[in-house]
Task: structure prediction
Amino acid sequence: MGLKRTGIFLLIAGSVLSAGSTLLFDVPRLKPAGVAGDIITLIFSMLSAPMLVVGAFLYWRSRQYADKTVAERVISDSKPDVLYLRGFGTDPCIGSYVISAISTALTSGWKTDEEQLGEVLLPFGDFVAIGKPGEILPTPGAARLYVSDAEWKKVVRDRMQNARLVVIRAGTSEGLLWELKEAVQVMNPKNLLILIKLGEKQYEAFRKQADQIFNVTFPIAQELKRFGTISGFLRFSPSWSPNFLPLRAPLFRRGYKRYCGLLKFTLRPVFEEHGLAWQPPLVSILPIVMSATIGVMVLLQIVMSYVKVFSWFSR
Result:
C-alpha cells in the first residue's frame, strides 16, 4: 500500500509541476520577474520528469505485488473464469508502462489495457492468463498461472473447456496459432472472442492464418480499419462465421478510464448473449473537458507564436 500511495503522490505532483513549468514558460507574465522566475521554472522542469518516472515505476511495482497475491486466490478456486490468451510480446514492459502512464494518465487511470479489459469482463468471472516464463513478478492485469513448457498445452485446453469466456488477442506466433486451432476443436463458438489491435499489414497476416484455421472467410482489413488501425473484437456464430464489433462508444460515456467505456459499449452484444446484466458507463464530461483543454492549449501556442513573430518584425 505504501508503494502505491507514494507512486500516486509522485505522479500527481510531477504532473502539477510539469503543467506549472509549461505555463510559466509559455505565459511569461505569470512568471515572477527576474532571476527568481527563471529559477522557479527551471526547478519545476527538473523535478517533474524524475517524479513522474519514479511515481509510475512505484505504482507499477505495487500493482505487481498486489496481483501476485490476488492470483494465488483466483488460480486455486473452482469458479468459471475468463481465459485471456496472447503472445507474450504484447505484455507491456516497465519502460512502455512509464511512458503510457505519463502520457495517458487522464484517459487510462494509470491502468493498462489488459487491466481495463479484465475490469469490464469481471461479470463473466476472474481474468486469468498464462504467465510469461521466467518473470519474477506478474504483469498487472489478469491473474497469472505459471506452467512448464511440457504442460502448457494441456492447461490451456482444460482452461478453454471450463472457462465461461475465452479472449484471444490476435497474433501470428506459433503458440497463439495452436491456441486458435484448439479453440475451434473444443469450444462453443459463442464463448470465444478475438481481440484485434493491429495495423493493416499485421491483421492481413493474421487473417490469412485464421481463414485456414476456422475454415471461414474473415473480413479483410479495408472493411475494418479506422484511422489506420483495426481495434475491436471478432465474435462467432454457431457455424464459426465471424462478426466484427468495432471499438467505439458515445463520447459522453467514455469516462475517466476511456478504454473501459469503449470496451463496455463494444461488448454489449456479448453480455446480452450470455444473459448478463449490462449497465452503461456513467455520463462523463471529462472527454469534453480534455478536448477543450487541449484545444485551448493549442490555440494558446498559436497565439504566442504569432506574438513572438510580430515582436520580432517590430524591432
The chain has a mean pLDDT of 79. Strands lie at 81-85, 126-130, 143-145, 165-169, 192-199, 229-236, 242-246. Residues 285-315 form one domain. The CA atoms of residues 87 and 174 lie 9 Å apart.
